[in-house]
TrEMBL record:
This is FYVE-type domain-containing protein. Pfam families: FYVE, WD40_RLD. Keywords: Metal-binding, Repeat, Zinc, Zinc-finger. RCC repeats lie at residues 23-74, 87-138, 139-190, 191-242. Transmembrane segments: none annotated. It comes from the Eukaryota. GO terms for molecular function: zinc ion binding. Coiled coil: none annotated. The keyword Translocase does not apply. Residues 247-289 form the FYVE-type domain.
Amino acid sequence: MGGLHVSSVSCGPWHTAVVTSCGRLFTFGDGTFGALGHGDRSCVSQPREVDALIGLRTTSTACGVWHTAAVVDMETQYTNADTPGSRKLFTWGDGDKGQLGHGDRNHSLIPACVASLAEPSICQVACGHDMTVALGTSGRVYTMGSPVYGQLGNPEANGKLPTLVEGQLSDSFIREVSCGSHHVAVLTTKSEIYTWGKGTNGQLGHGDHENRNIPTIVEALKDKQVKSVACGLNFTAVICLHKWVSGNDQSVCSGCHLPFGFRRKRHNCYNCGQVFCKSCTTRKSVKPP
């Protein structure tokens, strides 16, 4: 890959996928189930280009445990990246739980387009242990794969074909999706977070350890300005922006609610943006430039 500019990298436990700035896709690692997309089950110790996608522009990838998914611009690598054509979802590798979305449970040794996906263009993809989540440019979410913990977000889904996730998401435009091993989190344009799937470790953020088979809003984040969401194997993290409160506009401490005065000075928190007195301020840092 000497001389190529890498634009993104995605990793599974046993393999890695690399996308270059010109849309070329390289994979390496364990190819036991065909997750590398090279047409065989060989393991590769150095990046090797996925021949089946040569001539097309790969825009993003995601790695499951034994499968891989990619969003592919059906225009050539040499067209202007700022004017994308129709972007389709390609999957390959282990399909035992239907995570490839091809209507069966077969493995695929090379990338294959998910033809049954009723969406004109895909903008993002995420993979869990044995599931795949696709986000369309329409803001709709599709899932495929194992339904065992409710991670498909649709109680009626069997997982073999892409299923539209509706419920509470019906009136929302989704701008970001993320997968853990067996749970999903999505971010809407209204800065709302919805989660579903396995909740054993509290990764859904609903204050309990229950599984959810439909999208459920995370109430604790409803008043937060969430900018991004990411899932680990069994946890979820978000980045929030906080509204800055001017000390001149607040007359009482946000902690103890006692009034500010000559002896009780105002201190701005650079984490939450609120105003506190010295007694309620336990940590201090230098004001950022």
